């Protein structure tokens, strides 16, 4: 019979060993016991005609079995004489005659006592002294196997633990990133930054245009941090009135001002042990900035109208859509507060800087709308989807989401058409949302058709007409030339092959624009 040892579990392996020994030693009961290092032996495996299921797990205290303790100390097999009075090891479970054959062998590996191996037979004279050497050798092998099983089990358990931790981490990360859609290099860098800073306690400053997802990034950092089970408290600093901003952030004592009828905790206390998200931190009143700086430094503040210091443990994540460096120069933002908040800055790209993510985002929002509204038939027409891909999205991800929400309502249960989107021209050459990046004005391949002359009033022309108009203007300016640095493709920042495809789709023939110096 062929046995694949490599895939056998420890129980089957021990069973096979005891069965093999029985071919050489005529036993009726063979038992392997493990030593716990605390004066206790416990049955790990039993075999033979007298083996009983109740033996498994049976324990023997060496404090009550001085004879077995002495055998373990001696580290040599011991053959009991049939006439020798000794306590029957398994008397409570198996009824053996007063006089019977009994052989006991310590399981030793190096200096370690691993356990004990016992053999019993109801008849006398079944074991002879000549087998002692063989049993001693077998015992060493069994001891080595048991230790190896321990190592393997520990490795398996540790591997399972690590896999479980990894799965939990992946599940946690998947949950944290559920609203951060994108696969562009610019967005991957943002996700990497989130992973990196989440485990730290340092303040984070998230910078980006309106609608780029600053709060979602802050929530992701919180979800991946050790504070995930604690509160995440958002505060929109631009919505705080100067008169009530201090009370809103730091709370107030009863009677501290007219209308303060009871003690009220501020956002800092509500976020204790958690995360406080200060959105639009650049709009925080100057008179509150020193108090915020103190909390960042010491975690201590006083409520409005109070004198008793309040200590909190809060992680600060701030966000802004303004240039704080310029705000510092203009005297609207404290320099020391800026450096305290921006220990780990994260700059979010605009949607114009990660146009390859527009498709993923649009499909993600469409899927969410379909699931929420139970409208499985909702879909984009080809023209609508193309319009989505080439629009400049000055309001970024938030604008895209809102446009699709509105379009879904207008479309009802059918298809989302271009007119449902209500998109109008946004020339990238004129758009500079917040000056966060010089790349904001760069024309990408899918947006380039918007980059024609800025003095043309396109009004409410359909998007397809605007695209056609821009291409025709570029061909007119280049004399019908497509290739080269002075060609229409370069002017539109398109690949020549892409431009030729668009010409065919829009029914434009470059021959209409050829000049004597044009391409032939």
From TrEMBL:
Keywords in alphabetical order: ATP-binding, DNA-binding, Nucleotide-binding, Transcription, Transcription regulation
Annotated Sigma-54 factor interaction domain residues: 180-409
Alphabetized Gene3D superfamilies for the sequence: 1.10.8.60, 3.30.450.40, Homeodomain-like, P-loop containing nucleotide triphosphate hydrolases
Cross-referenced CDD domains: AAA
PROSITE patterns, alphabetized: SIGMA54_INTERACT_1, SIGMA54_INTERACT_2, SIGMA54_INTERACT_3, SIGMA54_INTERACT_4
GO MF entries: ATP binding; DNA binding
Domain of life: Bacteria
Pfam assignment, any one: AAA_lid_14
GO BP: regulation of DNA-templated transcription
Stored SUPFAM superfamilies: GAF domain-like, P-loop containing nucleoside triphosphate hydrolases
InterPro entries the record matches: AAA+_ATPase, AAA_lid_NorR, GAF, GAF-like_dom_sf, P-loop_NTPase, Sigma_54_int, Sigma_54_int_dom_ATP-bd_1, Sigma_54_int_dom_ATP-bd_2
Protein name (record): Transcriptional regulator, NifA subfamily, Fis Family
Source species: uncultured spirochete
């Amino acid at each position: 019979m062929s046995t694949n040892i490599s895939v056998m579990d420890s129980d089957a392996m021990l069973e096979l060993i005891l069965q093999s020994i029985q071919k050489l030693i005529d036993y009726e009961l063979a038992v392997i016991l493990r030593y716990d290092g605390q004066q206790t032996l416990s049955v790990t495996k039993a075999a033979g005609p007298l083996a009983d299921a109740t033996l498994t797990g049976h324990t023997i205290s060496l404090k009550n079995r001085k004879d077995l303790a002495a055998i373990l100390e001696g580290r040599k097999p011991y053959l009991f004489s049939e006439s020798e009075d000794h306590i029957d090891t398994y008397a409570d479970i198996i009824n053996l005659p007063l006089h019977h054959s009994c052989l006991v062998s310590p399981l030793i590996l190096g200096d370690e006592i691993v356990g004990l191996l016992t053999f019993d037979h109801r008849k006398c004279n079944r074991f002879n002294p000549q087998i002692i050497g063989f049993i001693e050798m077998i015992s060493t092998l069994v001891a080595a196997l048991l230790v190896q099983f321990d190592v393997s089990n520990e490795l398996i358990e540790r591997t399972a633990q690590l896999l479980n931790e990894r799965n939990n981490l992946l599940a946690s990360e998947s949950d944290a990133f559920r609203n951060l859609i994108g696969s562009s290099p610019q967005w991957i860098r943002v996700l990497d930054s989130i992973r990196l800073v989440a485990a730290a306690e340092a303040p984070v400053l998230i910078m980006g245009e309106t609608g780029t997802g600053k709060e979602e990034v802050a929530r992701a950092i919180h979800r991946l941090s050790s504070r995930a089970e604690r509160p995440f408290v958002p505060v929109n600093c631009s919505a705080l009135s100067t008169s009530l901003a201090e009370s809103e952030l730091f709370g107030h004592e009863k009677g501290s001002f007219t209308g303060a009828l009871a003690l009220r905790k501020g956002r800092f206390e509500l976020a204790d042990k958690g995360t406080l998200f200060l959105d639009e931190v650049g709009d925080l009143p100057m008179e509150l900035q020193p108090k915020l700086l103190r909390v960042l430094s010491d975690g201590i503040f006083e409520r409005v109208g109070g004198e008793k210091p309040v200590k909190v443990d809060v992680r600060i994540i701030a966000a802004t859509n303004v240039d704080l460096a310029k705000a510092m120069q203009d005297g609207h933002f404290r320099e020391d507060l800026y450096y305290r908040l921006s220990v780990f800055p994260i700059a979010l790209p605009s949607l114009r800087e990660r146009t390859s993510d527009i498709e993923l985002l649009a499909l993600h929002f469409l899927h969410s709308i379909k699931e929420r509204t139970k409208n499985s038939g909702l879909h984009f027409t080809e023209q609508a989807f193309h319009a989505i891909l080439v629009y400049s999205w000055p309001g970024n991800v938030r604008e895209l989401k809102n446009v699709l929400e509105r379009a879904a309502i207008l479309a009802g249960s059918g298809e989302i058409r271009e007119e449902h989107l209500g998109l109008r021209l946004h020339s990238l050459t004129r758009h500079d949302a917040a000056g966060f990046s010089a790349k904001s004005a760069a024309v990408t391949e899918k947006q380039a058709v918007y980059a024609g002359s800025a003095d043309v009033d396109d009004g409410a022309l359909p998007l397809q007409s605007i695209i056609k108009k821009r291409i025709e203007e570029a061909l007119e300016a280049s004399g019908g030339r497509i290739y080269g640095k002075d060609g229409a493709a370069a002017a539109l920042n398109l690949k020549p092959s892409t431009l030729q495809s668009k010409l065919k789709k829009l029914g434009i023939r470059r021959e209409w624009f050829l000049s004597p110096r044009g391409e032939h």
